[in-house]
Design goal:
Helix content is about 5%, strand content about 50%. It is mainly beta. The strands form two sheets. Strands 2, 4, 5, 6, 9, 10 and 11 form a seven-stranded mixed sheet that branches. Strands 1-3-8-7 form a four-stranded antiparallel sheet, with no helix packed on it. The chain is globular and about 40 Å long.
Length: about 130
């Protein structure tokens, strides 16, 4: 019911910026709650930012990215973005866009299993 396609990853030096995009489609995507997660090698998938809807919502950020990352939607393009500034080597990971159709609590929003739809991921590598 919701398809997600991420793009925008790449290799960047520490202190640089990237903007990740997640294009959404499908019959139900306008009702979805969206978030960004990431997974570094050998680590569990972790929450980065969200949840955000296409119309409103209070978003939250993982502590290590507060003040550096921001999530936003472009309704005209059916796309959710993750702007990442002042990148650090520890930000290196595969970044995933996730969506769920039913409302979720703040606590649920942090858990990967709360989301029903996932993109394929995009690799972000930050060199020191």
């Amino acid at each position: 019911q919701v398809q997600l396609v991420e793009s925008g990853g790449g290799l960047v030096q520490a202190g640089g910026s990237l903007r990740l995009s997640c294009a959404a489609s499908g019959r139900a995507f306008t009702r979805s709650f969206l978030a960004w997660f990431r997974q570094a090698p050998g680590k569990e998938r972790e929450f980065v930012a969200g949840p955000i809807t296409w119309t409103e919502g209070t978003t939250y950020y993982e502590d290590s990215v507060k003040g550096r990352f921001s999530i936003a939607t472009d309704n005209a393009k059916n796309t959710v973005y993750l702007q990442m500034n002042n990148l650090k080597p520890e930000d290196t990971a595969v970044y995933y866009c996730a969506a769920v159709l039913s409302p979720i609590t703040t606590t649920q929003a942090l858990i990967p299993s709360a989301y029903d739809y996932w993109g394929q991921g995009t690799q972000v590598t930050v060199s020191s």
